[in-house]
Amino acid sequence: MQIIALIILYVSNFISCNILQSDSNTLSSICDNILSSLQILNKNQVLRLINREKCRNYELLGEKILNLSDKSQNYCYRGVQFLFCNLRYQPYESNFNCEHIKDKFIKIMKTCSYHTPNALEKNCSSINSENLTIFDALEFCRTNYVTLNGEKQTQFEPVEHEYCSKIVESFNLCQYVSRRLNLRNYCIDGGFQNYCTHYIKEVRDGTYEAMCKNFVLPFVFSKLMEDPESLKPSVCAKADENISSSLLNLRDQLMFKSKSFFDAFQSEFAYKKWVQDLESRLDGMVIDLRDLINQSNLCFQYLNYPHRFFYAYDNVVIGEFAKAKEIVDRIYNNFNQLSHLPQEIVQLINHIDSVINMDKAIKEANIHFRDLYTLISSGSHYYFSLRRDRTLQNNMMVMESNLNRISLFLPNNIAHIKQKINAGTPFEANLGKASMLHQRANDFKNIASLLEAQLTALYKIMAKSKDSNFIRSLDLT
Fold first, then answer.
1. Where is the signal peptide, in residue numbers (predicted)?
2. Which residues of 77-98 are buried (b: 16+ CB within 10 A; e: fewer)?
3. Residue 383, SS3 per DSSP
4. Alpha helices for 90-187 (secondary structure H)
C-alpha cells in the first residue's frame, strides 16, 4: 500500500503542475537542449561532478520520486542539474575578432586571479577577488590590462568593448554556476569555452525544470555514462518512448535480479524452479536468434541484389536501418557480457541480468527487421543514384559479422551457464549469506517499485496511461 500511496502522490503532484503546457516544455525539446549544452560544455568535467557508484541502479530516477521515498541521497545529478535544467546556451553570431577578445579576457582574468610571478604590471579593477565576478563590465573592459614578462601589454581596444562586455555577462553567470558547483576556477579553466558563440541565459520556468530534473536529465546522463558515443540527437526524436523504454528495461532487470536472489536462497525447490525458468529462457533465446539471422539476411540480400546497385534509399529507410544497427549493437554488447559471467554462483546470479537484456533485444530486433523488410521491399522509398551508400554497406557488413559470431559462440556460452547453475544450489552452499542476499533482493525490488512509480507519472504526462502497449503490470507490493 505504501508504494501505491507514493505513486498517487507523485502523479497528482505532476499533473497539477500542468506539465507540457508549451511546446518548449516537451520531453524531446528538453532533451535536445541538454544535448546541445553537452556539445558546448566540457563533458569530462561535467562527468566528474557525478558519483557513478552512488548512481548504480538509481541512474534513471528523478529528484522528486527519490525525495518522496526518503532516498534523496541517491539522486545522482544534484551536482549538474543547475547546468542543464536552469541554464540555456543561446547561440549568437559574433564578429571575426571575438576569439581574440576572449583570449585577452581569459589572460587578464587568470593574471588577476592567480599569483603570476611574470606579471610586470596589471590593473584588476571591478573584479571581486573572492568569487571572481566582475561588478562593472564597461569599467573592466575600459581600464584593465596586464603586462607579462617579454610580452606586450594586453588590454582592450575601444572597438572591442562591446564584445568584451558580452563576454563579461556570460562569465558572471558562469561564475554563479561555478559557486554552486564549488569550483572557483571552472569558468576560466575550460568549463565553459564558447563565449563567442553562445550567451548563457538563466531559465525561470518551474515546469521546464521539473520535467528536466525528473525525467530527461536522468535519461540523457544514463546514456552518457553508459556510452558517450551512443548519445546522438536521434535519442531525443521520440524522447517519451525512449525514456519509458529505458525505465521499463531497468525495472524488469531489477525485478529479474530480485526474483533470482529470492528463489536461489529461499529453498532448494525454489532454486531448481528458477533454474528451469532460466534454462527455458536461454533455449528460447537461441531459437529467436536463428529467426533473427534469417530475417536480417533477407534484408541484407534484398539490399545487395546486383540490379539494385544504383538504388539509393530515402531518409525513412536510412533512419530505420540506423535503429536496426543500434539494436544489433546492443545484442552484441550483451553477448560479450554473457561471455564473461563470473564463475562463482552468487556473483553469476548477480550479473545474470545480461540474459534478460539480450533476450529482449533479440525479440525487438526480430520485429524491427520484419518491419524493415516490408519497408524496403515496398518500392516506395528508393531512387536512382550513381553513388553507392558506403555507410549502409559497411553497417550491413558489421551487423552480419556480429550476428554470425553470436550464432557461432552463443550455444557454448549457454551450455556453460547451464552447467554452472546446475552444479549445486547456492541455498546449500551459502546458507550463511542468506540474510545479506535477501536484503539485496529487497533493495532491487524497492528500486523497481520506484521505477514503476516514475513510469506511472510519465505515462500520465504522456496521456497514454490506458495504452496496453505501454502499461505492463508487475506485483510490486
1. 1-17
2. bebbbbbbbbbbbeeeebeeeb
3. strand
4. 98-113, 137-143, 161-181
